[in-house]
Amino acid sequence: MQDFAQSFLLAGGLILEADPALVEIVLLSLQVTLSALLASALIGLPLGALLAVTRFPGRRALVVLTNALMGLPPVVVGLLVYMMLSNAGPLGVLRLLYTPTAMVIAQTILITPILIALTRQVINDLDQEYAETFRSLGVPAPTAIAALLWDGRFSLVTVLLAGFGRAVAEVGAVMIVGGNINHVTRVMTTAIALETSRGDLALALALGLILLTLALAVNALTSLINAPARMSGNVRRA
């Protein structure tokens, strides 16, 4: 127990002193996760809205597939990206394996189905309110999608936060394609796994506390953003 207490004290000291190794790992984690979230948002939000608004053959199958891919195992994603980026893979010539870019690719693949599925649900609910109006005015699909995305912006921010929370806590895929290389691809989750196996509980605890704080911050932001979204929804129904 004394060792655990000392580890907590050392972890607090690392955070308060802004230990350079700790800061480097945290900043790289945020860089990778935010880059993946941006790429996923550019893909997932329009595709989710498109699935909600348009009707075409095979749409139902795509919806089912997207929902199924929300539970895609991270290690499978990591393996597939590894095979694509390895020297023997089709993209090996780019030499992206064991780089932050490879980690961004893996996280993007992992969270894009989540953003598509959640966006489709948000936009589908809004489309049920406005579909008749759009049809009567002859609004084209691209304009309708843009209007619905804007109207659902508060709910969509919570979708993005859900994607961020999923990506920042990922360890399996980024471990496979990043290699957990010090000063290159070591992020919070992979560093926690490594330092725990080494017995360096202080750094692992410090990173764990920061990761937990990020998770709590995401949940708090989600609640704050959902409040005006619920209010505007109540106003529309009234």
UniProtKB/TrEMBL annotation:
Chief location bin: membrane
Subcellular location: Cell membrane
Stretches of the chain forming a coiled coil according to its record: none
Name of this chain's protein: ABC transporter permease
Domain of life: Bacteria
Location of the ABC transmembrane type-1 domain: 26-222
CDD domains: TM_PBP2
Protein keywords: Membrane, Transmembrane, Transmembrane helix, Transport
Transmembrane stretches, start-end: 34-54, 61-85, 97-118, 156-181, 201-227
Gene3D superfamilies, A to Z: MetI-like
Membrane topology, as annotated: Multi-pass membrane protein
Recorded family membership: Belongs to the binding-protein-dependent transport system permease family.
